């Protein structure tokens, strides 16, 4: 049939137009190659070996099912874990036993063992400086009457400030001095803040609370100081290995920790290798630091790592394997759905358009009633009764998706049924079924061909949307929509958002390019505009 179509000069001309549009032509090739690879996914990405040699016999698990009893004699009829079998003593006992796995030895349903994921065996000590906060009560002559936690204002970290003048620690701005004088003069004053630099070159925010006029002037005024963290006052991360020796590049701050506190920190670091520990506060040169202990542990979902370039999902399954198998399911579902929808739509539209009259009007009213039924509710009802499955989803979607194409086919048949070649066939006594199939249908297939790629894109997007909502394929079927649903649960797992979205966007974009090329190839005006 394809060769017969290409022998038609009109078809060859249209194919030449399509081929000249490189974007559409290359998109068709890319989709075809990717779909072909996905059909061979078991040979590319699988946790089942391609070949097993055991006790002098050869097995082909990727093509033939073997129970665990075949290899272990345990009597179990379930599928064996071939990776565990390969590491068993019975398999390792003979050097002639071996297994050949696919290039990517992970399956779409395989949950990873956290012990097999390489993570650095190190504890990171994170020292976070706590901003200093202090208070001072001053007299009208700016003498400090009493103070609380003012150490961060001094250059050496410790000082006795009581009885000294505020000028010794803080150069006063005119605005701050006026705010102080206004309060000592017993005048109303609003809340005020001033950003200043101390004599020890530390930036602080000096604040004065709201003041209301009293019966007599105050004897002291309270100033509150809050330190502003500078560029060099951020977190410091020091990595420790089992030897409890810090990395040489991050030892400056560690060497300034008092010896007794450093010993206690080392005890906490050693304990963190085995179990979580609480945070601790340490004083370094008069400054308080919050010490936290971080150790990278495998918790699913897990970001991309060696052996898993696209990361791991919430159930411990490889994202690359899920995307590859999900592509096969999505495109297969789309092709089957569009083919069924096109077949039903063409048949319904052909009958309506060819016979017209009362049959056409009655069928149109019935189609309008049918299309008004809520698809999602029907899908939920059918799924609750029969359970979610690929065939049920295809059936439910197919019985609603044909309506649109039937309108176009009906319009084409209404236009072509009065053409001279149809009238001539009737005069020659050709049966109606033969006229529909041999004479009118080939000339009415333009909408079918041009809409096919766009319908395919819509079907793939609809499947992803249904899987995302939880009304699509049953778990644990690989699905792009299911990965996006996980991304909503684990919003910090960027790889669950990025890679499935890119896969879905890329396939839909390629499909649109193909559809655009086919549409332009069938419309000479569009083709000339494209050129």
User: Beta-sheet strand percentage?
Assistant: 5-15%
The separation of the N and C termini measures 30 Å
Kindly report the average pLDDT value. 86
Low-confidence parts lasting 5 or more residues at pLDDT below 50? 526-531
Please tell me what the overall shape is: elongated
CATH architecture of the largest domain: Orthogonal Bundle
- What is the CATH topology of the largest domain? MetI-like fold
In the CATH hierarchy, what is the class of the largest domain?
Mainly Alpha
Range of helix content = 40-55%
Structural class: alpha+beta
Biggest β-sheet: count, sense, barrel? 5 strands, antiparallel
> Could you say how many structural domains there are in total?
3
- The strand line-up of the biggest sheet is 6-5-9-8-7
- Output the radius of gyration: 38 Å
| Number of DSSP-assigned strands | 12
Tally of DSSP helical segments:
21
Annotated CATH homologous superfamily of the largest domain: MetI-like
Write a structural description:
With 531 residues, the chain is of the alpha+beta class. The chain has three domains: 51-100, no CATH class; 118-297, Beta-Lactamase (2-Layer Sandwich); 311-530, MetI-like (MetI-like fold, Orthogonal Bundle). The protein has 21 helices and twelve strands. It has a five-stranded antiparallel sheet, covered by helices on one side. A four-stranded antiparallel sheet has the order 10-4-12-11, covered by helices on one side. Strand 7 (192-197) and strand 8 (203-208) form a beta hairpin. Helix 19 packs antiparallel against helix 20 (494-522) and helix 20 crosses helix 21 (524-530). The longest helix has 37 residues, at 319-355. It is elongated, with a radius of gyration of 38 Å. The two termini are 30 Å apart.
